[in-house]
Amino acid sequence: MTNKYPFDKQYEAVLIKNNSDSKSRIKHSNGTHMEKNNLGLYQPIHPEQRETETYKMQIQNSSSLYDHKIVSSSHNDNSRISDDLDDVCIKHKEQYSQVHKHEETIDNTFVYEIDLKYNQGNEQDKNWMEEAKSILIKMGENIKIINDVDKRNSDIEKERLASWSLAKWKCFTENNKNKRHKLEKMKVHREQNLMRRYFYEWKQKTNIIIKEKNERAEKIDMFLDVLRSRQEELKENLEKKRKTKPAYDLQRNEFKNRLNIQKDIIKSQKQKLAEAEEEIQKMKIRQILEQNKISRNVVEENVRETIQNIDPKLKVAANQIIKFKNDEKRESHEKAKKLVESMEQRAKERKLKWQEIQERKKQKAEAKVKLLEEQEAARLQEEEEKKKKRIIELKEKRRVEQENARKKENERRRLNSLSVIAENFHKKKLKQRALRGFRENLESCLIKMELADKFYIYQLKRKCFMAWKFYTEEITAEKEHLAAHFYNYILKRKVFDTFKEIYNTRILNLQVAIDFRDLKIQEKYFSKWKAFCRWQRRIVQHQMKEADKYYCRRLLRHCFLRWRELPQIAFYEREKDKRIREWRDKVKEVLPDFVPFEVE
Question: pLDDT averaged over the chain?
Answer without folding.
Answer: 70
